[in-house]
Amino acid sequence: MIIDFQYSFVFLFILIAALLFSLPLFSFLDERDDKLRNNSMDSLRGFLAIFVIFTHTVAMFYLFKEDSWKNPNVKIGYLAGVGVSMFFMLTGYLFWLKLKYSENPNWSKLYVKRILRIVPLIYFQTIACIITILIITNFNF
């Protein structure tokens, strides 16, 4: 399958979604009560997540271009491994710090906040995938 500009709508859709969720309308999703938040570490985690996304994008490009899962440039493939490893190490460290400095962690509140943070993204991702598949297949099944 040859990639042409008809697939660029996916990137446009992601950009629009990112801009939409940064509006003040969705500010209730932002955490404001965490005094121990380490913004520089969160920023680093964002860059590491971008490494993983970039690697997956390259792999998907070659899947569409050559109909096979392969990564032609081995150096790019390391970005995902480094990104995932460091992302989870930093996440564990930040989570440990949060627990260390809280006298009595409220576990139910913690899990409810995690669920409310993750589940909407799962729904959004699922809907985005379904829409993408429908558009790519021209609604033919």
UniProtKB/TrEMBL annotation:
Pfam families xref list: Acyl_transf_3
A cellular component term, taken from the record's GO annotations: membrane
Keywords: Membrane, Transmembrane, Transmembrane helix
Record InterPro entries: Acyl_transf_3_dom, Acyltransferase_3
GO BP field: polysaccharide biosynthetic process
Residues passing through the membrane, by range: 6-26, 47-64, 76-97, 118-139
Molecular function via GO: acyltransferase activity, transferring groups other than amino-acyl groups
Name used for this protein in its record: Acyltransferase 3 domain-containing protein
Source species of the chain: Chryseobacterium aquaticum
